[in-house]
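User:
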Amino acid sequence: MNQFWATFRTEVRSTLRRAVLRWRTRNLGLRPVMRNIHGQYALTRDGEVVLLSDPPFRAYELPLHPVPVSGHMQRIVYILAAEQDPALARLIPARGPDDVTCPDCGGSGRMIHPDKDLIEQGHTCWCAGAGWLPDGMGPFEFH
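Assistant: Predicted structure:
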């Protein structure tokens, strides 16, 4: 298969996967918030954060159901949801007395990198823009 058809096939599959995720999110009555390599993160009507994994294209693997998300990814989704709709700010957990200032951004909520070509200045930090991390949370701790 030449490069054109390989690229075309990849683009079509990617577009179909996104369309299936949008359809599943809408049919389940979820509010989409963010998407990453794991799938679509969304809020239920009750404010629970769920993950809809990217759908496979094998009939025997369907249907896939939303999986509840907790920990740091839940916090990130709440912060991003509040940016999209300020009424959802009530879902963001309050900073506790033992929570630490984010070591990556120094509390600004924005990544700072000396090489402007490497990372866009002002890109949201690991703390999701809050400027702090929950007490006891180490780097790359998702759950």
